[in-house]
């Protein structure tokens, strides 16, 4: 078993990794950066490596050589990259291998291949996984585009080959639109990515996002831990996830998990990974991509399967054989995760920066909170805006939803605005409650459906305003009144 | 001389809703002649609760400029201005002016004659819908809805002569 690990990450995932490592007797190392020298995650590691004098341009968690050197300097055996940052960086994985450090993740080749959209798609197709029909390589002329589109069938999407983040993409619904869209897509690709090449793919209208959790050891054993649905997204960022998916019946589950396992086996996958699919309204699924790391939403899978995914990562990376057979995996109950972000829903999810003056988390047997913040934490623009993950469990989806509604009522934050009112609104939405939602959910809802207002809120806000106004004009405590300075000091000043 | 001091204040929110309160003796609040029993309590961890009618909601004042407050209650913002009976009238006119941006006035761009009116008052229309056809300079011209709206008032009738800038139709934005 690995004896020591450098956690090359921060916030809630660093705490998550440290929690399991501690339980397994693995010594944990964390980095203290000058961007958040008092971060909560530092309390959970056994040893803090102070890099507050670092002034490089790349941030610490993205600096490959810095991390390698620190691991070697402190004789640390393994590096856990968490999610984001360098978790899917093949070069980093390779450097770890070169320096005899255990990288908690699959091989550099697998990371590289799965990170390339074209290669990953080819691999998927070869292993019999349904993929979206599309052009083989770049499309260079309008004629070629038109002919391919006819082969695939409309609607199609034109995507920049060197692109990403939604740029250089154009949806073409009819043959008549192709000329204009092709021209726009290629010129946008040229200006944004300095490469006008585009490829064309079948476009699935308003798909559901379904992903399958894969666990594989270094000996070719691969199992799946069921699926998750992550269709509540805003600008391709997941906000709410659940396991299992209300759209998946046992037959479809069998098909989609079989496809994911087949794909993982075909590339010699090891440790944890997630195969993402698009599910269309006809129950047909298509390979989208594979994430070769632990995912933010892994807790929902943990809640319904009972397995500790980080523990599995450590065991597999230590060379252990997978001792879980597929038949041992039972999906029990329902879990929903809500990402609580520091965003102002009423201002179109603009970041809410500031200090968390106070925070109250809901508590309960079937409630789990994964967080990296505490009262007093400053929310800055250095890192992402996720404050906490609220994960709720129920024997049924209905029970989970009811529990979630109660839990969110008890999630209270003072000092910044959060997406709690948005999460509450989703739980009251008929489409969500029926499981009948897809990735177009947020965009298709009128703004008033995205924020939940408790009863009498408006009246009480008015009452408070009037009360404050009246107190100001008629203060009940005059400056002459004697207030004990100790009392004044202890009293949290004002609202 | 009144034995009890009373003070009337009105809260006006961003949607134009008003809430009238009467304050007696500086600490008793009445709304619609009923006493409002409430308490504002700051708990030791810093969360302030507004308790009313069995409800206990966390509240925070995000900002305050004179009589204008941004109140955060359950994490949702409400923009409230507190008016006295004197300032209320002015505030209401201001609010009306602001919501007046909701009103769209469609005027005749040139003199002519109304031929057909295709909508009726109260009807919902979509951006681009043709509302009225008039004749001018020997041609038929259309007046279309510039935004999704409700037809508030039709100021002309079929066959009426119109002059330049004649107010034809008043719409209210949806």
Which key terms come to mind for this protein?
heterodimer; A: alpha+beta; 8-stranded antiparallel β-sheet; 5-stranded parallel β-sheet; globular; B: 174 residues; 9-stranded antiparallel β-sheet; 4-stranded antiparallel β-sheet
Can you summarize this structure?
The complex is a heterodimer of chains A (495) and B (174). By secondary structure, chain A is of the alpha+beta class.
Counting copies of identical and different chains, the oligomeric state is heterodimer
Portion of residues in helices of chain A?
Answer: 25-40%
Low-confidence stretches of chain A: none
What can be said about the biggest beta sheet of chain A? 8 strands, antiparallel
Proportion of beta-strand residues of chain B: over 45%
The greatest interface between two protein chains, and residues involved on each side, is: A-B, 40 and 43 residues
Strand order of the largest sheet of chain A: 13-12-9-10-11-14-21-19
Number of distinct beta strands of chain A: 22
Strand adjacency order, main sheet of chain B? 4-3-2-1-9-8-7-6-5
Tell me the number of helical segments of chain B per DSSP (H or I, 4 or more residues long). 1
Q: How confident overall, as mean pLDDT of chain B?
A: 88
Q: What does the largest sheet of chain B look like?
A: 9 strands, antiparallel
Q: What is the radius of gyration of chain A computed over CA atoms, rounded to a whole number of angstroms? A: 25 Å
Rg of chain B, Å, rounded:
25 Å
The helix tally of chain A amounts to: 16
Helices and strands of chain A: which structural class? alpha+beta
- The N- and C-terminal alpha carbons of chain B lie at a distance of 51 Å
Shape of chain A: globular
Count of individual beta strands of chain B: 17
If you had to describe this structure to a student in words, what would you say it looks like?
The complex is a heterodimer of chains A (495) and B (174). An eight-stranded antiparallel sheet of chain A has the order 13-12-9-10-11-14-21-19, sandwiched between helices. In chain A, 33% of the residues lie in helices and 23% in strands. In chain A, helix 11 packs antiparallel against helix 12. The radius of gyration of chain A is 25 Å and the shape is globular. Chain A contains 16 helices and 22 strands. Chain A has helices at 11-23, 64-73, 90-98, 108-115, 117-126, 142-152, 178-193, 250-266, 298-305, 309-317, 397-409, 420-428, 430-433, 441-444, 457-473, 485-490; strands spanning 4-7, 27-32, 47-50, 78-80, 102-103, 156-160, 169-172, 198-202, 208-216, 222-234, 237-243, 271-279, 285-291, 334-341, 343-344, 350-351, 354-355, 358-360, 367-371, 378-379, 386-394, 412-414. The longest helix of chain A has 17 residues, at 250-266. Chain A is α+β, with helices and mostly antiparallel strands. In chain A, 47% of the residues are buried. Chain B has one helix at residues 85-100; strands spanning 6-13, 18-24, 28-31, 34-36, 38-42, 48-52, 55-65, 68-73, 76-84, 103-107, 112-117, 124-125, 130-136, 139-144, 149-154, 161-162, 167-173. Chain B starts with 5 loop residues before the first strand and ends with a strand. The mean pLDDT of chain B is 88. Chain B is mostly beta strands and 174 residues long. Chain B is elongated. In chain B, the strands form three sheets. In chain B, strands 4-3-2-1-9-8-7-6-5 form a nine-stranded antiparallel sheet. In chain B, strands 10-17-15-12 form a four-stranded antiparallel sheet, with no helix packed on it. Chain B has a four-stranded antiparallel sheet with strand order 14-13-11-16, with no helix packed on it. The chains are: A alpha+beta (495), B mainly beta (174).
